[in-house]
Amino acid sequence: MSTTGAPPQSDQANAAAAAAGVATQLMGAVSTMKEKFEAVGGNEMLSKVSSSIPQGAKDYIGNTTKSLFKREHIRSFTVFFGIGEERPFYLERSPSLLMARLQHNFAFFYLNYMIVFALLFILTMVFSVKTILGLVFLGLAWLFVIRSSSEGHLKIGPITLSQQNATIGMGAISAMVLFYLLSHIFLWALGSGGFLVGVHGVLRDASLHQDSEDKVEMSGDLTLEGENASFLNPVEGEEATPNV
After folding, report:
1. Which of 143, 180, 207, 214 is most buried by its number of CB atoms within 10 A?
2. Best-predicted range by mean pLDDT among 64-78, 107-121, 127-141?
3. Separation CA 154–CA 109 (nearest Å)
4. Which is more confidently placed, 51 or 141?
5. DSSP for 16-62, written as a single string
6. What beta strand segments (E) does the chain contain?
7. Are 174 and 70 in contact (CB under 8 A)?
8. Sign of the C-alpha dihedral computed for residues 129, 134, 139 and 144 taken in this order
């Protein structure tokens, strides 16, 4: 008696082994690319570009990046969806109040909105067979170029290229291929993410959290003197008498 409908275990094992082999080759290619990049003076080139940027611009970019991407600015799942609140979502009909809500939500949830765009982009890319195959073939092409130019030059028919020129040419080809593979994914993620973010920004009433970043931390004991102290903490056996 034979069963059908399930692939043999040997085929699954072969497929897993092939995928593992491709992944290993790609990781090796990335490591080799890093070594070749350093060999052709890539680090020196980046150092020259970095040194040409004014220090004031570097400080401004660094401070802006730190202030924008603070981990504490990522709102929790409960706050993002208003779980436990009485009316977390409703449509504000007053235009002025609606604009104030949008301004607050975009300022308050901006990192969450960026995460939404990133997740949509990654999920779309993962479920796109054409994109995955294109990235695999691009990695194999890099592996071929690196191995073929290991002696310092790459020969393609009658044409001989130096390792540096071959790397630059492959980089340009990679940029065009990545643009072709990822442009439609980026546009789809931008459109769908913009729609979801817009709906959330319009409907989410986060007015309870508007002053959450304006709180003043207080420490120490509260000390009251004079009439307030005797009024709030009456002496045992005495009753506080109101002023007539």
Report:
1. 143
2. 107-121
3. 51
4. 141
5. HHHHHHHHHHHHHHHHHHHHHHHHTTHHHHHHHHHHHS-HHHHHHHH
6. 153-156, 159-162
7. no
8. positive
92 in the Ramachandran plot: left (φ > 0), alpha (ψ -120 to 50) or beta?
beta
Q: Please report, to the nearest 10 degrees, the dihedral formed by the alpha carbons of residues 87, 93, 97, 98 taken in order.
A: 90
For the question of whether the overall pTM of this predicted structure is more than 0.70, the answer is no
Structure tokens at 196: 């979801």
pLDDT tens digit sequence for 144-157: 888 888 777 887 77
Positions of E strands within 108-171: 153-156, 159-162
Buried b (16+ CB within 10 A) or exposed e, 195-230: eebeebbeebbbeebeeeeeeeeeeeeeeeeeeeee
Tell me if residue 210 falls in helix, strand or coil. coil
Amino acid, res. 66: K
The answer to whether residues 174 and 142 touch, using CB atoms and an 8 Å cutoff, is: yes
Token pair belonging to 130: 């054409």
Q: What is the DSSP letter of 204?
A: B
Q: How far apart are CA 145 and CA 2, in angstroms?
A: 48
C-alpha pair distances (Å), 116 with each of 23, 84, 192? 28, 22, 10
